[in-house]
What we know:
This protein has 4 helices and 5 strands; from the N terminus they run H-H-H-H-E-E-E-E-E. The protein has helices spanning 2-37, 54-62, 78-85, 94-106, and strands at 118-132, 135-150, 153-162, 184-194, 199-204. Residues 2-11 and 37-41 have low confidence and may be disordered. It is of the alpha+beta class. Helices cover 31% and strands 27% of the residues. Strand 2 and strand 3 (153-162) form a beta hairpin. Strands 1-2-3-4-5 form a 5-stranded antiparallel β-sheet, with no helix packed on it.
Amino acid sequence: MSRLVMNNVRNSKEQHNSFKVLLFMVAGTWLFFVSVHGIKAQNFSPYFTLEQHQQYIDYLITSGNLKISHPLSQPYHVNELLDSLEKLDSQNNHWMKLLKKDLLKYNSNYESSGTSGKITLLADANYTFQRIEDVTDGYFGLNTSITYNWRNLGMHYRYTLDEHYKNDSLYFGTTGKLGFKTFGRASEAYLEWQGRNASLFVGRINRNFGL
């Protein structure tokens, strides 16, 4: 009797595993098909999260110059910002030129990505000072990112180093494997397929849906 029960349990587990494998294969085949043969007019548009431009983007929106269909849902997509900025005159606007220049680095509609896709590598560093009473401390920061676009499919990875993290005893203030205090993390990492009316997202990024 016990042998029969064990066989039934084993058979049910095998059927469950087979179903998961079949479901994964079907989902993977569908994703590959729609990314290669699907909506070719739809290009992958990554989220635009460069901090140096966020205050200026907010200013353009609140002043009524930049028209975004859903301004409370942030961060915005690169293509969406570029399409809105095309309606504005940036000939004599230094900050808008800088914004467009950085947006075009990620965009695949305005620059040919070729048959193998497009890779964008970016890095920026900063050093800030903070004075508390009579003590002044300096903090180093570094952001590096890699973004890959190919038709509807794209991936993005961003690693952030910030010495302010050393003051966070709850998460970052611990000693890492190399014997130093941890002050770096993968701040953004995601893989996304974008269709005209739907998208599939796997990963992590700070989102604000305006709720």
